[in-house]
Every structure is written in structure tokens, then in C-alpha cells.
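Lab notes, practical 5.
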Amino acid sequence: MTGSSKVLIIDDEPIARESLDALLAGEDYQLFFAAAGIEGLAVAAAVKPDAILLDVMMPGVDGFEVCRRLRADPELEQIAIIMITALDDRSSRLAGLRAGADEFLSKPFDSVELKTRLQTITHLGRYRRLLAERTRIEWMVEHSEDGFVIVDASGIIRFANPRGRNYLNQPEEVVGQHFLAALRQCFRLEPAEAWNHWEVAGEFKVPCFLVQPETLTARAFWLQVDTLSDPHDDELGRIVRMRDVSSQMGNYQDMRRFHTTVVHKLRTPLVAMYGSFMLLDTYGAEMPFSEIQEFVHTALHGIERLKSEIDDILQYINVPVLALSGETIMISSFQAHVTSLSTQMGLAQITVSIADGLEDLLMPLTPQALDTILWELLENSVKFHPTKTPHVAVTVRPQGDHALCIQILDDGVSLSSDQLRSVWTPYIQGEKYFTGEAPGMGLGLALVATLVWQVGGEAHLVNRVDHSGVEVTLILPILDLS
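Output from the prediction step:
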């Protein structure tokens, strides 16, 4: 046993406490004292002793009650208890056992017997706590969202919790298999050099990952791996933890792609503006008026594009407040919003159909949020139509008893399966020119999705089956203000 065991002595008689102090002074114990039952409970809670020598006959709260309270406390229930009593009758000992005592000593007690029993009982107290701690740890490991695997010095799996077996795609049993061989059946091990070092040295110098690459039907799956090993005891093996970091990796990649897109989109109009103004500044005095007009037109077009891109960014950043201000909008005003927006963008060929009986229903969107959604969807219809003159059909109909379905169809381009999978993220564009540049940043549909999702709705986009173009369907709950 390493370190000093802590022993609490609870006895109301000063002479008894002094006698026990003298008897145990030369032993390897840390002694604590309490002169009453309530005080003893407080000291026990503070010091968490390995064992308690507990007098039975005390005024107020007696030893039996102290024992019962200790056993009822989850933090103290595992402490070993020796009850010291002048009573030697069978009924008293039964009462002590029912209260939860482990051992009994009768006064006057033999010093050798006391030391022997105390040594045994402190071992028992520590064992109980270790067992309880082990039980708790086993429960946490079994129910953890992280995968835990113990690998011996030869690389053989000696233990795997349920999540670890799941990550290794072997839900039943993997004990006895070679760890790296099991991993390579399911994952790419990256970076390879770090995994090679782990195989030799049993430790990671840099973050290591297990990767299942992205497919047409699923995003990439990432596990980050770290290990705990004792360099002084190879027999214990290495504990390997596998943690799902797919969301974090996806967010990191998405942020980087967003950053790249912003830089590219803002730089492109700036280059056109800067080049035009630089040429005008340098050679404007020598240029014919028609050429000056051409450069001014190019610069102005760049300014308009830059403004549009910045507006998109600011609108996307501010989207969380758009549908949460407490304002609402009636279906009866829906057509007026569509007409106003389509007029602003020069969209002439558009029809709106609203099912009967919906006029007085409320949507959980502000007028600004509805305008934002409609603007983004209608603008996409224009932007991605080959001649910029789409035919657009908008319908509003009930969806069950508690929701609305808003559907917008156009006859522009259709999307690839990869684009359809990622269409609601702010990093995908429906179409790119061979230069890699397309008007708009791909923020629009993500903006639509954010607004719809945050009010409990759904957003879907599919290719039309009867014609080229896409079909956008928004499901919005009906707002009940009753």
C-alpha cells in the first residue's frame, strides 16, 4: 500500500481519543478526530478517510445513526467502518451490521487486535473505492461516444469498447486482431509518417487521423486518434482513443472554402476597377473619348459587382436576426411581395398561384425575411437561365394541417448530383464558367436554408423531371397566435 491511510476517530470521550492517538502514533496513518456524531460526519465529508473508528455510545447522534448516514452518502458510502462499543450483546452487533458496519471492537480492546483489524479494514476501504471507481470508469468507457482500444506491445487488440468496435466496423469482437491491420480495412491512416512512427515508438508526435473519403452519397468521415501509454510498463499496453471530428473538419474546410471564395470574388471586380482607373490615370489625356467611355464602363461594372458581392456577404452574416424580430406576415400579401421583387429584377414571365382559404394564415417570417428568400430564389432563376429570361411558376398550398408548401419552378439549368447534395451550403454555385468564375457567391441558397431552418421549416431542391431547370420546395409551419 502506497502512502499513508487516513483514519478518522469519532468518540465523545477525550480519554478514548487520546488512547487511540497514542496507540496508533507510531503507525503509518494520518489521524483525524471528532468528538460528536455530527462533527464526525462533517470531518468525513472533508477528508474522505480510508477507515473510521466509530464509538457507538455517543450523546445526540449515536454511532448507529452516523453509520447509517455514512452509508447513505454516495461520496462516503465506501469508507470502511469499525464500530467500537462496550456492548457485547448479539442485538447490538446486529444493529451495527444493519447500519452498515464492517467490523466490531469491544472495549476494552487489545492493542494488537486493533492494529491488525485496522490494517485489514483500511485495505478494504481502499479496495472498495478502487472497485467503485473502476465500475464508474467501465460504465463511462462502455457508454462513451469516443472509441477506446487497448493495444499490447505487439500491436494486438486486447480490449475495445462498443464505440471502438463500431468504428472498426466489427460490432461483435476485435480482440486478438492486429490493430493497424483492422484500421487499414476501414480507413486511410493520415499522415502516413506519423502512423509509421507510432507503430515503432507507440506515440504520436503530431495529430493523427483515420479518414473515410467523401463519396457521392456521404461526406468524409474523420476520426482523430491519440494515445496514452506508460513507457515504464509495456504490459499495460497503449490506450488509443478515437474521436469523431467529422463536423469540426467539415466546418474548418467550409470556413477555408468560404474565405477563398470571398477573396476570389472580391478581388475579381477590384482588379477590373483598378486596371481601368490606372489606364485612365496614365493615358487618359491621350485616349479618344470612345475609349475613355469603355474603360469607365468597365470600372463602373466592377463597382456594381463589388457592391453586389458585399451586399451578399453582409446579408449572409446578418441572417440570424431576420426571422426572429417578432414580426409576421400574412399569406394574403405574398403575391404583392413576389410582384414587387420580380419587377425590380425585370422578371416578366412569372405566375403566382395561391390555394383558396390560405389568405388569413400567418407565416413565421418577417417581411424582410420573406423578401430575402424570394429575392434569392428568383435571382437564381434569372442568373442561371441561358438567356436570363426564365419562366417561373410560384405556388402556395397547404401541407397537411399545420404547414404551408411554397414551390418555385424555373426552366433554367439542371444541376449535377454532386451540386444537388451540397446546394444548401454557402460554398457551392449552380454553374461555373470555364474560367472558374460565376456571378454570385453561392451564398443565396444557404441564406434561404438558414432562414427556413431556424423557424422549423424544411428546404428541398431537385431537378425538374418534365423540363430543364429546378424545383425548390419550402415547407413552413403555420404560425398559431391563438
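Observations recorded by the TA: Residues 147-244 form a domain with the Beta-Lactamase fold (CATH 3.30.450.20). Residues 320-324, 426-441 have pLDDT under 50 and may be disordered.
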